[in-house]
Amino acid sequence: MRISTLSLFIGVLILSACGKAPPPQVEKAPPFVKTVKVATGGAADVGLSGTVRARVESPLAFQVGGRIARRAVDAGERVAAGQALFQLDTHDFEQGVRAAAADLAAADAALATAEADLLRARQLQQRNYTSEQAIERFELARREAHTRHEAAAARLVQARNALGYARLQAPQAGVLVDVVGEPGQVVAVGQQVALLAQTGERELEVHFPASVTPPAEGLALLGDGTTRPLALRETAGAVERQGRTLRARYTVHGTQDGLVLGAVLRARFRTATVAEGEFVVPLGALNERGEGARVWRVRDGAVSSVPVGVQSTDGEMARVRGALADGDTVVALGTHLLTEGMKVRELAR
């Protein structure tokens, strides 16, 4: 009796549980996506980063080799023209000066002796005590002594110059961007020990993609929100082998305040006109899923992929060619989360 009652009670519970309606499912709202309208025609803007450099950067090196005895500066210091930067050990150079001075003294004595011999020979010739051939030999000895004297004097000048070259001085006022020489280091002739950014104009060094011709003008964006106009000064003669980029130097017009050497600034350039059938989209709009580049077009609240061919890119934008129309809206960010026909809500860029 008890077993039957218990079985009946369990059955009622099971039937009650099966009879409950499932909880209502809440439909998720379509996600927000940032969108942008594709641009065509006119000129395309290129955004790139550039490095602030000095107009004149002088690698500093000794004109003689030796061991560095003293370093008087550090990287980042501002130096004046003629200021001493490094000093080599001068012991050998001083010995060279003394040896050259001794050679010159010996040459002086030899020249004086040759001139005295020639004078006596001429006096004897006037009395017919010597021949013309003897006079010629004395004149030859005098010319030889004179030549040796000039060579010894030149060697002394060289030895003194070498002693002076043992001190490396700043050729112009500026800032030492880099200092690599250390006391005790043995350096060769011409081996760079420092890099001096001379005081004067500042420039922005920009590396363009190989397919982009550096424009004649641009605009530098400083960290405080101000801008500086740029003017192209020089372009490298060849594309760099490693990065396949073209280096260009732009003169920064206006005040030099805020242009810290080595700082990286954003710059905007107006490049050539976009060709017919090409469109400009943000780099973030490109999506690659193993089937080639594509963008996601938004129409009637849903997305669809559009295959495109990438013509060129820069730091922010890309020029593409595909089945797009002027004014089409594409997703600018987060394209890796999209699926075909997915509903979205636009968050205009």
From TrEMBL:
Record-linked InterPro entries: MdtA-like_BSH, RND_pump_MFP, YknX-like_C
Annotated ranges, domain YknX-like C-terminal permuted SH3-like: 280-345
GO cellular component: efflux pump complex
Signal peptide: 1-21
Any one Gene Ontology molecular-function term assigned to this protein's record: efflux transmembrane transporter activity
Name of the protein described by the UniProt record: RND family efflux transporter MFP subunit
Lineage: Bacteria, Pseudomonadati, Pseudomonadota, Betaproteobacteria, Rhodocyclales
Residues of the Multidrug resistance protein MdtA-like barrel-sandwich hybrid domain: 63-196
Keywords, ordered alphabetically: Signal
Organism: Thauera linaloolentis (strain DSM 12138 / JCM 21573 / CCUG 41526 / CIP 105981 / IAM 15112 / NBRC 102519 / 47Lol)
Family the entry assigns: Belongs to the membrane fusion protein (MFP) (TC 8.A.1) family.
Gene3D superfamilies attached to this UniProt entry: 2.40.30.170, 2.40.420.20, 2.40.50.100, Helix hairpin bin
